[in-house]
């Protein structure tokens, strides 16, 4: 009787205890798997990063890059018109040689290039939109101050330091952003965004050439500032970084220069730009000095 009653209490048998342990272990494992799955689904790399090459958003970033290149590089390559106006006796009341005046555009271009090298770390850290806001303000404010300047040092502060610093803040992100939104057509996207520099370099000199005789240098530069402000509205509204922020990056990583291919690429770009800005700075003045402007084609 006691034996039959003892056999009726299954939880006290070793086999029942093993089944309970197995059931408990299975429940714990299932909970662990569910928690691991939930945590994995909430990581930014799998949930919040938009897919590249899909939808209209990548092409919107290309439009934003076009506007940023139009306002930054387009202004830099238009400096030849300013150089010709300054050397002909307009704008600057101080006596300065052509080479001295050229420092205005040279310093502006330097800040564009050097600033882009330094802002790469800020871009990777997720501060692209902050840099766009600051850079846009500096570009527009610098052009407005340029329209009010009449001394050499004032042009250095306004057109060189202020405007150039603003360009340096937005130039790198202009092409880096669409490059992350595309994989299959990355070259096409970056190429289309880069055309903004060429279009700006065409429009600004022509506009200044026709506006300065009619409304004066000050208002002509202000109109240029209004154009820049208008073109910046689109990227300030729609430009977004696709990849998550990486705040653990050194300012400048010189290890990459140890790669032969990359080192040769940087050297070739350095040599190319040695003569690049000289051409854009003096081509219009040279055309007028050599009497190639008989039909008014020098600004073009």
TrEMBL record:
Pfam families: MFS_1. Keywords: Membrane, Transmembrane, Transmembrane helix. It is a multi-pass membrane protein. Its main location: membrane. Residues 57-300 form the Major facilitator superfamily (MFS) profile domain. Belongs to the major facilitator superfamily. Monocarboxylate porter (TC 2.A.1.13) family. This is Transporter MCH4. It comes from Trichoderma lentiforme.
